[in-house]
Amino acid sequence: MATAVLNPPEVEKISKLQSAVAGLNQISEKEKVGFINLVTRYLSGEAQYIDWNKIQTPTDEVVIPYDSLVPSPDDISETKNLLDKLVVLKLNGGLGTTMGCTGPKSVIEVRNGLTFLDLIVIQIESLNSKYGCNVPLLLMNSFNTHDDTLKIVEKYSKSNVEIHTFNQSQYPRLVVEDFMPLPCKGQSGKDGWYPPGHGDVFSSLMNSGKLDALLAKGKEYVFIANSDNLGAVVDLKILNHLIENKNEYCMEVTPKTLADVKGGTLISYEGRVQLLEIAQVPDEHVSEFKSIEKFKIFNTNNLWVNLKAIKRLVEVDAVKMEIIPNPKEVDGVKVLQLETAAGAAIRFFDHAIGINVPRSRFLPVKATSDLLLVQSDLYTLSDGFVTRNKARSNPSNPTIELGPEFKKVGNFLSRFKAIPSIIELDSLKVTGDVWFGAGITLKGNVTVAASSGEQLEIPDGVVLENKVINGPEDI
Question: What pTM does this model have?
């Protein structure tokens, strides 16, 4: 880690910023300190320079093949003991705005009228019932999702799952022109603030008091995952391995496909395992980074972390993850958000490993095209678990491209009378004003393109196999 020293103009910037931030009464003293520390690190030019020649491909001891893990114990009481050491934490700070929804993304209906959050709660309920254990669920909200989540969580009050919520930090956006906080410029609403990425999970867990409360109850590991990843379910084999081998941190990785070339990957570097993100890659090596031959795995953001280790490191401010500058514009004003990612913390923990898991553990729903996959007959739902249909022989999912008419969840749902059967589909591309009937089967490669200004309806019950449809006459 190269640490640069602040030069006089930067020192003056920080001094002015400290005075301005001191007057912001919407946030706590700990948030103010965390924010100033982050900006100071950013201005000092502290950066981790990757020496490309020192990068090594991790061995199977560092990134362990999932198939080599020892099966979890069969004995119910042993399994209960394992699970009683676990906490599940879902990152719940995101809004469903990209899919046209207001409120937390986790309350979008995924399947059979159930939301992401419903499925998560049902999964943990079934574990707690089956093994007589007490796995609590923690939701890390942002100031954007906090109020809505509290209302939604009330409906699980009779559940056998303890649900705890806490907020990640709230930091002021920085005006690029003079490095002053946007809320000091009269922007008093939510637009003046931002949540600083999920790397904030470690300090927020500590600052909220939740970390000490969990340790007091004998909890040892936290499984952290994005709330929109339907594949991120509790895995006893992984938990068992970490406890047996005293691994303080584990990142689940999975083989890259061409759709994942920008995803961060694990490398061995100067004797430690660490995350390499595309932003850290020198320009001349970007195409090499994207190669699925050289860098074969990517980070799913399913993370398992030892709670005592989090406490030890956060107490001495040792988790200094790479800073991700995220430029934005608010009402015509150029602003900067400084963020961090939880996966980058891997290099600060002892005996950190990756586990190369099956693709089924990475099933995120980022757009309505993903929603189409999980609502279709390609998946079945049982006890809150979304499982891939064995009737599909192709190990890859179909590629689906839907036009802007389908971008919002409401529009997407109204344009399908029922989700088509896609067990034998390889690719689907839909453009224009297209409407689907019920009982449709799609196979092979299908393209449906309505001409500009025309509405195209695919009638009930048709089978489309390797077809290009431009009008009713092509069906």
Answer: 0.94
